[in-house]
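Anyone up for a design puzzle?
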């Protein structure tokens, strides 16, 4: 790629997306431990979505004749989770990822890399959706406030999440 700084940042974003996948996989296991199969399904679907995001960055770097340089992942951290804390952590994580995408976009513009700037548009829109999804579940969980029937209903709804087509 023309800009080595953009190439390095894109490689870093591959790691961020894979790290996200790893984190959501751990959250899925934690939800299973909490006997919430719908939550576990939702996080598993999110894990798959993050793998697809990593793949988009991976393919893009190669398409631009760049060099893919994979980095080491960190062990995911999920401790003493509650249904609410899982989604609060998910929202905080997505806000972090949105920040990464915005920084990447700023860099692409500073380096006059118009193709990367346009490529990142999809992720800007996606992050709005990712944050809204997590926030929506947090709102629902706060509404039922530990009521077992309410939690059961939310779990059933989260069980219905399916893999996104074309992701
Ligand atoms: Fe790939 Fe959830 O950001």
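Challenge accepted. My sequence:
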């Amino acid at each position: 790629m023309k800009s080595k700084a953009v190439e390095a940042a894109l490689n870093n974003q591959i790691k961020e997306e894979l790290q996200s996948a790893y984190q959501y996989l751990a959250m899925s296991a934690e939800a299973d431990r909490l006997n919430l199969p719908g939550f576990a399904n939702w996080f598993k679907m999110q894990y798959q979505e993050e793998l697809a995001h990593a793949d988009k960055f991976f393919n893009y770097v190669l398409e631009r004749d760049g060099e893919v340089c994979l980095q080491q992942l960190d062990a995911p951290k999920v401790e003493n989770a509650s249904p609410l804390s899982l989604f609060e952590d998910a929202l905080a994580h997505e806000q972090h990822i949105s920040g990464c995408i915005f920084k990447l976009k700023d860099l692409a513009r500073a380096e006059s890399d118009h193709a990367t700037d346009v490529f990142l548009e999809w992720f800007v829109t996606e992050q709005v959706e990712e944050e809204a999804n997590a926030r929506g579940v947090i709102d629902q969980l706060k509404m039922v406030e530990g009521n077992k029937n309410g939690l059961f209903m939310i779990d059933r709804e989260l069980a219905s999440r399916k893999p996104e087509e074309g992701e």
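A detail worth pointing out: The chain has one domain: 4-72+80-158.
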